[in-house]
Write a structure and sequence with these properties.
alpha/beta; D-Maltodextrin-Binding Protein, domain 2; 2 domains; 6-stranded mixed beta sheet; 5-stranded mixed beta sheet; globular
């Protein structure tokens, strides 16, 4: 191209580029203003609190979960319900847990470095110091199926010809331990019942209650709260001299990731009127001392 023609085109080209860019120094448009209420920024993640709890607490804690969602919407409760012995073993094997609620003291003692009963034989140190409390009290009862076909009326009948089959928890389940204490206190030999094929064992109290409900056994030894939950007929209640007090301890566990949130939930369970009402409505006594 002729140099004169090239220099003549430069001013025209400059004018054209200026018109396209609106006379600014950048061709990138300014961002449009947005309404804060329409922001798409992700909200903060919820704090997850992993709760291991005795099977007998399942109905109550599941109901309380909805109450706590309103009180602490930034917390997500994740429950595992099973026998206290199974849960204790899972914790010792490394399962993450923020809060443990046991149906028996011995299962908690095995995890507590401050245990003085001799149950903690391997130096386990899972309980956050100062967090352990006696949470609720329950009762142990003898329950029978609808219409009570065998005519079982008391714990003493477990040594009579009325009994064909009794269901109790195994010895690693707190309700199973209480059952054995009751039988021993009454002079009923569990080995004799075993030899006669009159005993079947369950891995947790829920299984015992289900067998009674389905009338696959003549009776079962369970907690009063489970009898309430499963609408079972109770024919006898164990007194303290038969098996002692049935106290559920609770403690924050250091294998979890949210100890403060776990403590907050435990405090809620013991002090919130709605939570206390749910627990006492099925037969627990909430302990505050």
């Amino acid at each position: 191209m002729n140099m004169k023609k090239w220099f003549a085109l430069v001013p025209a080209l400059a004018l054209t580029l200026s018109a396209c860019s609106g006379g600014g120094t950048s061709s990138t448009p300014a961002p449009a203003a947005t309404d804060p209420s329409e922001s798409t920024a992700p909200s903060g993640e919820k704090t997850e609190v992993v709760v291991f709890a005795a099977a007998s607490l399942e109905a109550s804690l599941t109901e309380i979960q909805a109450l706590y969602q309103e009180a602490a919407p930034d917390v997500e409760l994740v429950f595992t319900f099973d026998s206290s012995g199974t849960l204790r073993t899972q914790i010792k094997e490394g399962a993450p847990c923020d809060l443990f609620i046991s149906a028996g003291q011995s299962q908690m003692n095995e995890l507590d470095a401050e245990d003085t009963t001799g149950a903690n034989t391997d130096g386990s140190d899972y309980v956050v110091p100062g967090s352990r409390v006696n949470f609720v009290e329950n009762k142990v009862v003898l329950a029978v199926p609808d219409d009570n076909p065998a005519g079982i009326e008391s714990f003493q009948d477990l040594s009579s010809d009325k009994l064909s089959l009794l269901c109790i928890g195994n010895e690693d389940v707190p309700v199973g331990s209480y059952s054995l204490e009751i039988l021993e206190s009454l002079g009923i030999d569990i080995n004799d019942l075993d030899a006669q094929g009159k005993v079947t064992y369950a891995t947790n109290v829920t299984e015992v209650a289900n067998q009674v409900k389905e009338a696959t056994v003549d009776c079962g030894i369970i907690y009063a709260t489970d009898a309430n939950t499963y609408d079972l007929t109770v024919v006898d209640e164990a007194t303290a001299d038969l098996c002692g007090q049935v106290i559920y301890p609770a403690a924050v566990i250091n294998s979890g990731a949210a100890p403060e949130a776990a403590q907050d939930f435990l405090d809620f369970l013991r002090t919130d009127s709605g939570a206390v009402g749910v627990l006492e409505g099925v037969g627990f006594t909430v302990l505050t001392d």
